[in-house]
Amino acid sequence: MEQLLVPLALLGSGLAAGGLMISSLGGAPLLLTLPTDQYVPVHQFLVTRFDPFMPISLCGALVADAILAFTAATAIVHVLAGTAAALLVIAVVVSLTKNVPINKWVSRLDPSALPEDFERLDPRVRWRNWNLVRTALAVTALFVNVSIVAALL
Length: 153
Hints:
Elements: H1 2-33, H2 36-50, H3 53-71, H4 75-107, H5 118-121, H6 124-152
Helix pairs in contact: 1-2, 1-3, 1-6, 3-4, 4-6
């Protein structure tokens, strides 16, 4: 079972960490520099490119790590897989409670008729900060999954 689950956990956590790194290193800084009238359509465009890729990657890795945590033949793999699964659970919770609500709100905006108080409501800094949190969690989970491979050698 480990021969199937470890590669799936690595693949999912690697894709998730990579996607989140792209948004942390490129997407968020770009969005922060755009004028408001350009920010909304660019955010709307980018979000549609990451869904459903990111949820599938995160949840695929989470499921593989969770199963591995319960079926691992050795204690070290059990602990490492459980740790990776816990990190990914937190990343999913941050996504669902912080970033996704912002994405949904921005997706409903009409770029040509923004709310008058948009400057006060502008979610870019909050979105970037929460994205950095989930990026750190996903990258750490990837590191833990790589540690599983090392433990199995």
